[in-house]
Amino acid sequence: MTGLTTAAARALDSTLDRTIAPGFTRLGYAVRRRLPTWPADPTPGILTGHHVAVTGASSGLGERTAHDLAALGATVHLVVRDAGRGGRVAAEIESAVGRAGAARVWVCDVADLDSVRTFCSAFLAAGLPLRALVHNAGALPATRTESPQGHELTMALHVLGPVLMTELLLPLLGADAGRVVFVTSGGMYSQPLPVDDPEFLRGEYSGTTAYARSKRGQIELLPVLALRWLPAGVSVSATHPGWAATPGVQTSLPRFNALLGPSLRTAGEGADTTTWVVAADPAPASGQLWHDRRPRPTSIMRRTRPTAEQRGRFWEWVQEATGTGGSPERGEEARAHRP
């Protein structure tokens, strides 16, 4: 496909994106990699000497992302709930890259805001400048479940915990021109921002709907967070991995997994854009959604586009729930550990 003009390549890319199924599957990835518009791979060793943290790094896309970032030279910090599983991944990473100390395990339940604060306090004490913080941890509960603070689980895990974690670690991210990445989902295209019911207290609960709503929340916060974290020199992006075969998909969406089968992307294909956003030089523009190394629209249907007022009210709810109102550098703890 190298004979295509740039305009033709972009048109084909956009067509794959708008028709959903081809673009989100292995086919979309395979086609795009052969287009002349495909950005160059990150330079080997470009992350040498840098630290990156990945939540949910004990399996699936998070595990693959950690492997790929370590292969580019980074010291990866695996933020996981299960220390044993995290230790296994850390050992596999160090064996794969042949570098002792290439991976370190930190225990944190991202849905538990107290656990996030405890983890951040320990990480701040270590004083390690962060090149990137990848918010990959995810879950899709079958029934409505609450976090220890009483928040609906998917919203706590995908929005509240990541925002709080970033706010607390902002001094470390600012010390290395940090990049924050939310790993989102194409499911968010089907849902509007749940500004009037972020906790899913009304109507019949659906795990897939709640998951998609929380992912919509991530996307709609991008412009807010890009402006908020800009003074610290920190950028923020979201990456959409496409439809990838992961343990989470197999468990939570067995029919979807069985239906698409061989069409699903590998974990490596799904993690590709996240790795690229972290390692690309120069850094990709802040505040955008990326899929297969290209910025994508955040809404396809008019009904899912919030107004500025709705986005502002959702952000107010997030600030109230996390206690992150006012300056993005909150608390004596964060200020005391600025590198």
Describe the protein:
- The chain has 339 residues and is α/β, with parallel strands linked by helices.
- It has 13 helices and eight strands.
- Strands 3-2-1-4-5-6-7-8 form an eight-stranded mixed beta sheet, sandwiched between helices.
- Helix 7 links the parallel strand 4 and strand 5.
- Helix 8 (207-229) packs across helix 12 (308-322).
- The protein is globular and about 55 Å long.
- Residues 329-339 have low confidence and may be disordered.
Short description:
Helices cover 46% and strands 12% of the residues. By secondary structure, it is an alpha/beta fold. The longest helix is centred in the middle third of the chain and has 23 residues, at 207-229.
Question: How is the topology of this model organized?
Answer:
Blueprint: H1 6-18, H2 21-24, H3 26-33, E1 51-55, H4 60-71, E2 75-80, H5 83-97, E3 103-107, H6 113-126, E4 130-135, H7 153-174, E5 179-183, H8 207-229, E6 235-239, H9 247-252, H10 254-260, H11 267-279, E7 288-291, E8 294-296, H12 308-322, H13 332-336
Parallel strand pairs: 1-2, 1-4, 2-3, 4-5, 5-6, 6-7
Antiparallel strand pairs: 7-8
Helix pairs in contact: 4-5, 4-11, 6-7, 7-8, 8-12
Could you name the key traits of this structure?
12% strand, globular, 8 strands, eight-stranded mixed β-sheet, alpha/beta, 339 residues, 13 helices
